[in-house]
Write a structure and sequence with these properties.
The chain is built from 16 helices and 14 strands. It is α/β, with parallel strands linked by helices. The protein has three domains: 148 residues, 3-Layer(aba) Sandwich (Rossmann fold), CATH 3.40.50; 200 residues, Rossmann fold; 38 residues, no CATH class. Helix 9 links the parallel strand 7 and strand 8.
C-alpha cells in the first residue's frame, strides 16, 4: 500500500494517479470480449445444445437434469445449516426487506389544472434472474440482496443462477421461496437467460455481480435484455481525520480480500495517521494473500493538502463504498454507492445485514447512479386524462408548440378535439 501526497515532491505523479483512477471503468472487459461474444452467439443460435456443452466444460455438469436444483434440495440445505446461521440469514433478509419496502415507489395522481389528471402507475418487471457468484467466495448474501427487492417490487418470476452453489446459497433460496434455481454460471448463463433455451425461458432483466466473463456478457446483451449495472472489482474509500487507524485498516483489508483487483484508498490530511493506516493494513493483510496482492496493486493512502481537497478527491473517485467521520460529512458527499458514517460503521455490516443493498456501482459509475434498489425492478408508467376544460386551457398552447417544431399533424390532432368541442358547444 503506497503513501502519496498531493503537494510537494511527487505531487504531479499523485495527481496523475488520481486522474487515472477517475477514468477507471470497464476497459478490462475488452480482454475477454471476443471470447464472450462467441459464447453468447453460440448459445443464442444453438440453445440447449451449446448451453449444455459449456455447462459441462465450465461448470462441471453433465446432462440437463443436473442444471435444475429441486426445491427439496434447497429445503435440505436449509435444514443442514446450524441454527445460528439460519437466524443470521433470517435477520439479514428481514433487514433487507424492510429497507426495500421503504424504497418502493408509489402510484399517484394529481390535477394540475381543471380538466387534467396526471399521475403514475408502478408495475413490476415481469421476470428477473439473480446471478449469484460462487467462485473464490460463495455469496449467499448476494441472493438476498438481489431477490428480496424483486419480491418487494412484485416480480412474478424470479430465477436464481449460480455455478456450484454453496449450501448456504441454496438455503437462502429456500428461505426466500425461490422455485427456479439453476447450477449455471459464466457468459453462457447470461446468454441463456437473455435469449432463452428450451430448458431456461428468457427473463426480462439480469441482476447481480460476476467475474469478467459475466460482466462482459451483460454488456453484450444489454440492448436485448435489461441489466442492473456493470459491476467490477469492489472499491473502498475512507476519508478520515480522526481514525482509529486499526478500524480504517480493517475495512480496507476487508474489501481488498474480495479480489486482487479491488481498490482500497485512504484519504486524510494527516501524514501521521496515513502512516499508521498503511502499517496496520500491512500487518492485518499479512496472512491474507488476496488482500495483500490487492493492496500492493491498488492500495493508496493519499495525504491531501486540505480537508476540502480530501473531500474533492473522494467525490472525484466516486467509490462503491465510502466511509466518513461524522454525520455532518454526508453533506459534502456527491458521488458514492453507499456511505458509512463513523468509527462503528464497519463496511462489512453493509455487505450483509444493515438493509441497504450491497450491489453497488463501481468504476466511477456512482457519478450517475446509486446501488441496486427496489426501483430497479419496477416500471413507472405515466397516465394523463383530459376533460374539456383541460383541453381548452392547454390545447392551443400545445398546438403552437407542435407547429413551431414543424409537426403539423400533431397540431391538427389537438385542434381536432378543440373543434369538436366548439361545434358541440
Amino acid at each position: 500500500m503506497k503513501l502519496v501526497r498531493t503537494k510537494g515532491r511527487g505531487a504531479a505523479q499523485t495527481q496523475a494517479m488520481i486522474a487515472a483512477l477517475e477514468r477507471r471503468g470497464s476497459a478490462s472487459l475488452d480482454s475477454v470480449t471476443a471470447e464472450v461474444r462467441r459464447i453468447v452467439a453460440d448459445v443464442r443460435k444453438h440453445g440447449d445444445r451449446a448451453l449444455f456443452r459449456y455447462a459441462s466444460r465450465l461448470d462441471g455438469l453433465s446432462g440437463s437434469q443436473a442444471l435444475h436444483v429441486a426445491k427439496e434440495e434447497m429445503a435440505a440445505a436449509w435444514e443442514a445449516l446450524d441454527s445460528e446461521l439460519r437466524d443470521a440469514l433470517s435477520t439479514a433478509a428481514a433487514q433487507i426487506r424492510s429497507f426495500a419496502e421503504r424504497q418502493l415507489p408509489q402510484s399517484w395522481s394529481v390535477s394540475p389544472v381543471p380538466g387534467l389528471i396526471t399521475g403514475q402507475l408502478v408495475r413490476p418487471v415481469g421476470s428477473v434472474a439473480c446471478y449469484v457468484p460462487s467462485g473464490r467466495h460463495p455469496l449467499p448474501s448476494t441472493l438476498l440482496m438481489t431477490a428480496i427487492p424483486a419480491q418487494v417490487a412484485g416480480v412474478g418470476r424470479i430465477v436464481a443462477v449460480s455455478p456450484r452453489p454453496a449450501t448456504a446459497t441454496l438455503a437462502a433460496a429456500h428461505l426466500l421461496g425461490i422455485e427456479q434455481f439453476y447450477r449455471l454460471g459464466g457468459a453462457h448463463a447470461v446468454a441463456a437467460l437473455a435469449y432463452g433455451t428450451a430448458t431456461i425461458p428468457r427473463v426480462e432483466k439480469i441482476v447481480g455481480p460476476g467475474n469478467l466473463y459475466v460482466t462482459a456478457a451483460k454488456r453484450l446483451i444489454a440492448f436485448d435484455c435489461s441489466i442492473d449495472m456493470l459491476a467490477g472489482p469492489t472499491e473502498i474509500v475512507v476519508v478520515s481525520e480522526y481514525g482509529p487507524a486499526a478500524a480504517i485498516a480493517a475495512d480496507l483489508v476487508a474489501q481488498a480480500e474480495h479480489d486482487p483487483e479491488a481498490l482500497a484508498i485512504f484519504v486524510t490530511t494527516r501524514a501521521d495517521l496515513a502512516r499508521k493506516v498503511v502499517a496496520e493494513a500491512t500487518e492485518v493483510s499479512r496472512h491474507n494473500a488476496v488482500a495483500r496482492e490487492s493492496l500492493a496493486r491498488n492500495g493508496l493512502a493519499i495525504v491531501a493538502s486540505s480537508i476540502a481537497e480530501a473531500h474533492e478527491i473522494a467525490n472525484r473517485l466516486a467509490p462503491e463504498h465510502l466511509t466518513v467521520d461524522a454525520r455532518a460529512d454526508v453533506d459534502w458527499v456527491e458521488n458514492a454507492g453507499s456511505v458509512f458514517v463513523g468509527r462503528w460503521s464497519a463496511q462489512p455490516l453493509g455487505d450483509y445485514i444493515s438493509g441497504p443493498n450491497h450491489t453497488l456501482p463501481t468504476g466511477g459509475m456512482a457519478r450517475v447512479r446509486g446501488g441496486l434498489s427496489v426501483s430497479d425492478f419496477a416500471k413507472i408508467i405515466t397516465v394523463q386524462q383530459y376533460a374539456q376544460p383541460g383541453l381548452c386551457a392547454l390545447g392551443p398552447k400545445a398546438a403552437l408548440l407542435a407547429e413551431a417544431e414543424g409537426l403539423t399533424a400533431h397540431a391538427e390532432a389537438i385542434r381536432n378535439r378543440l373543434n369538436v368541442r366548439r361545434s358541440r358547444g
